[in-house]
């Protein structure tokens, strides 16, 4: 099988077809047509990721381990699967298993190695494209008691100002029954920032109090709550955050 268990660089991206709802993979976004998929912006995790096979009754299944407590799941990922400098696109289900030799829930074809193909041709990107994408992305990770979660920030000024304040170790606290909050050292500029309208996994800024919010449940939007980004991995850990946490940019 093409998928070896060596060290590999990886890139994460959600994908699909515009106007269709994803079936079988949670929290996927409505997306671009096929022709645009290769130009999507991506989330990068450069070091320490490996392919692993399942055990017991799942010996023929594969998953992608970041080796930091998280793994690829619930979406499309660009990976240099054979370390040849070209990046192929793979789809993982909500449990983290690689989807192989079929049509994915969002209607794309993957071959026996799990790579996305069009008319039998494997779709690839080169390393330069990936590096350019990485330079344009803002992704942060939150660490607490051995757990790691990642957020992809949007391109608002508020998100950029938060990013510039990192790394930081800061106290997180509960608020209501659906969010964790912390207070950045400097207030953020909300001019031009989108209002927060998502559900669980939304990273937001509440201007009146000057606090950043990590939602692990649904919420009502209001004119003082601005979106900073969305969780891309480890969202299930938000509700358990407590005490001192470390927040840093993902390089």
Describe the structure.
By secondary structure, the chain is mainly beta. It has 2 domains: 7-133, no CATH class; 138-249, Cyclophilin (Beta Barrel), CATH 2.40.100. 9% of the residues lie in helices and 39% in strands. The chain is built from 3 helices and 18 strands. It has helices at 34-37, 127-136, 157-164, and strands spanning 7-13, 43-53, 62-65, 75-79, 86-92, 102-103, 109-110, 116-118, 121-122, 124-126, 139-144, 147-153, 168-175, 179-182, 202-206, 211-215, 225-233, 243-249. The chain has an 8-stranded antiparallel β-barrel with strand order 11-12-17-15-16-14-13-18. A 6-stranded antiparallel β-sheet has the order 3-2-1-4-5-10, with helices on one face. A 4-stranded antiparallel β-sheet has the order 6-7-8-9, with no helix packed on it. A hairpin with a 4-residue loop joins strand 15 and strand 16 (211-215). The chain starts with 6 loop residues before the first strand and ends with a strand.
Using only C-alpha atoms, the radius of gyration works out to 18 Å
By DSSP (H or I, 4+ residues per run), the number of helices equals 3
- Number of extended strands: 18
What fraction of the residues are assigned to beta strands by DSSP? 35-45%
Give the structural class: mainly beta
Strand order of the largest sheet: 11-12-17-15-16-14-13-18
- Please summarize the sheet with the most strands: 8 strands, antiparallel, barrel
Shape: elongated
Helix amount: under 10%
Ends apart, CA distance between termini: 31 Å
Total number of domains: 2
Low-confidence parts: 1-47
What is the H/E order?
A: EHEEEEEEEEEHEEHEEEEEE
């Amino acid at each position: 099988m093409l998928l070896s268990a060596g060290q590999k660089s990886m890139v994460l991206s959600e994908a699909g077809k515009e106007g269709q709802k994803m079936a079988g993979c949670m929290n996927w976004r409505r997306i671009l047509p096929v022709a645009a998929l290769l130009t999507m912006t991506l989330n990068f995790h450069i070091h320490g990721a490996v392919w692993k096979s399942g055990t017991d009754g799942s010996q023929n299944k594969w998953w992608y381990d970041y080796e930091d407590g998280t793994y690829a799941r619930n979406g499309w990922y660009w990976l240099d699967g054979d370390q040849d400098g070209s990046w192929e696109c793979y789809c993982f289900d909500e449990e983290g298993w690689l989807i192989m030799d079929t049509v994915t829930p969002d209607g794309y074809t993957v071959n026996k190695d799990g790579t996305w193909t069009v008319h039998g041709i494997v779709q690839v990107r080169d390393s330069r494209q990936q590096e350019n994408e990485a330079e344009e992305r803002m992704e942060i990770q939150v660490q607490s008691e051995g757990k790691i979660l990642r957020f992809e920030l949007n391109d608002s000024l508020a998100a950029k100002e938060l990013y510039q304040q990192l790394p930081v170790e800061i106290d997180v606290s509960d608020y209501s029954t659906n969010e964790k909050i912390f207070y950045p050292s400097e207030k953020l500029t909300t001019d031009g920032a989108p209002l927060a309208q998502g559900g669980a996994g939304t990273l937001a800024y509440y201007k009146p109090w000057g606090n950043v919010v990590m939602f692990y449940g649904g919420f009502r939007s209001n004119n003082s709550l601005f979106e900073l980004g969305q969780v891309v991995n480890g969202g299930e850990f938000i509700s358990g955050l407590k005490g001192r946490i470390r927040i840093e940019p993902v390089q």
